[in-house]
């Protein structure tokens, strides 16, 4: 324990490492993006229009899928894709516990049951070794989540699913730039669902996308996103029919205009986040209370939506919640991604699971910490985060 004023943290009365707040996430909108949205507002065409189609085409090209269907959120993207794949009441969908609640809700909103399979201890993603034993006669699909942007082992997951006649729908909310075997995740599996929430690496304010190589699935999702309406026959005016279930989930021209401009800077921002990650690796190397995430195997690419570290509790005399508050006193926001699904009250009650169900995910969920990582940050910001963490380890280390 260090007792000097220099080593003492802000929560113990010393000046904070930073004078200005550093948020965990920060959407960065370019002047070009603002101008694009203004043009839409002045045009009067605010709802779904030609810019949505343009955004869909550009996004499909970016992630390597044949078809893209824009919707209002990543959550509804998952749900509509499951619907289009025929997942319904009585079915089971295998997924990971280390994800946001929306993944489970999308499955349950279809009347199906999430079957939680533990995570790989290095990747923190769905463990293929445990998927096969979880398959039953009710299993309809596997739903891997590319947590933090690290790709799942899609080679094994897709091969296993195809051998059993199962669909593979990936939750790519963190993974626009991710690759498996040097191929973007948008070209893997039956379909992929994306989120454009403000905390994501590409934002449309709110929004999402379903990407698939299956034209029939894309058509089903496209019809379902707007009340199940099908195009009217030529010359029939507004005499449109409804031939299936429907939702109100169509993206607006406003969102698409912003999305198109965000795509233009996607590669530049990805390269910047990669540089920040390398700085984190070097700056945190001497902090024994933390374990940094391992690098991806050759051929895989991490999108670096999140930079998560694992706390080594035996090295600290404070718990994670105290550490989070202490970092806030240093004017640095850190977070937790995620409290695992099997540790949430509602899912415990509905699925009959508890904290022992997926022990690896329970351990990771109890020790992980998300550090700031976004386009608005500088290398100096990373150094400030590392300095604050080093200060806390020095003062509270055991």
In terms of topology, how is this protein built?
Layout: H1 31-43, H2 50-63, E1 67-71, H3 74-84, E2 92-95, H4 101-109, E3 113-116, H5 128-134, E4 139-143, H6 154-163, E5 167-171, E6 179-180, E7 183-184, E8 191-195, E9 208-212, H7 215-224, H8 253-264, H9 266-284, E10 290-291, E11 307-311, H10 320-329, H11 345-351, H12 359-367, E12 368-371, H13 379-396
Parallel strand pairs: 2-3, 2-4, 4-5, 5-8
Antiparallel strand pairs: 1-9, 6-7, 8-9, 10-11, 11-12
Helix pairs in contact: 1-8, 2-8, 3-4, 3-7, 9-13
Describe this structure in words.
It is a single chain. The chain has 398 residues and is of the alpha/beta class. It contains 13 helices and twelve strands. Strands 1-9-8-5-4-2-3 form a seven-stranded mixed beta sheet, sandwiched between helices. Helix 3 packs parallel to helix 4 and helix 3 crosses helix 7. The longest helix has 19 residues. The radius of gyration is 22 Å and the shape is globular.
Radius of gyration: 22 Å
Task: Figure out the total of helices.
Answer: 13
Average pLDDT value? 96
Order of helical and strand elements: HHEHEHEHEHEEEEEHHHEEHHHEH
Placed side by side, the strands forming the largest sheet appear as 1-9-8-5-4-2-3
Biggest sheet layout: 7 strands, mixed
- β-sheet strand percentage: 5-15%
Based on Cα principal axes, name the global outline: globular
SSE-based structural type: alpha/beta
Q: What is the helical fraction, as a range of percent? A: 25-40%
Number of strands: 12
Distance between the termini: 7 Å
Unreliable stretches: none
